[in-house]
Amino acid sequence: MSSLVGTATLAAQKFIDLITLKACREPKEAPLTPEDIVGVLEGRGWEAEIVKAADMEGMIDICPKGILKCVDGRGSDNEAMAGPKMAGGIYAIAHNRHTTSIEGLQAITKEVAAKGHVPSVHGDHSSDMMGCGFFKLWLTGRFDDMGYPRPEFDADQGAKAVKEAGGFIEMHHGSHAEKVVLINLVENKTLEPQEDDQRFIVDGWAAGKFDLDVPNFLVAAAATVEMLGGPKKAKIIVA
Predict the structure, then answer these.
(1) In terms of Cα–Cα distance, which of 110, 113, 127, 117 is closest to 72?
(2) 1-26 b/e with 16+ CB inside 10 Å = b?
(3) Closest by Cα among 125, 123, 84, 90 to 107
(4) pLDDT digits (tens, 9 = 90+) for 90-127
(5) What whole-number distance in Å separates Cα of residue 184 and Cα of residue 132?
(6) Cα of 22 vs its chain's centroid, Å
């Protein structure tokens, strides 16, 4: 476990070094480019390539009825898949902002709804609400060395708070068999999970919509895949 956390910490530092270097070279810090993302992932031992949205089968428009859901590629009891994808669903927003309280989580739930999406978190058939790997890593301190404080609530309390604030609870089933990580940078577009051909889907553009720290958002997503033993293979989708 310590080696995995150390790897995640080193990766985060590499990303910080990259952004610092860009800031030194330019009068104003430039936004991350797809090439930056590829470079960082390759530095972590990933295979990564940039692909055009036109060449990606299954790209769809975001729908207000689609849930803002986890990147999990498994089967689900939810059919409204046309919402943005973030690690842990709305937990990704709380994690990025260092929001650890129930009150803060409920405020995020309402914020997501106000911005036109259905907020959600998830569990699964075998571990109930602890079936979200991202939340489990956060709760058990696997992000501690990256500077993220742990939530003050457990999985059941978090799900209850989200539901009470108007959010949706999704339940996944089956085993993880994701083959690739799709990092989508095309605004207001997403892909739908495919239970029989699993992939992690990360809508990177959505981090900007919620004013998140984009480098940290992407590092956390990549570290999550690594710590859960997922594929170190990514496609960066651009317009």
Answers:
(1) 127
(2) eeeebeebbebbeebeebbeebeeee
(3) 90
(4) 999 999 999 999 999 999 999 999 999 999 999 999 99
(5) 21
(6) 24
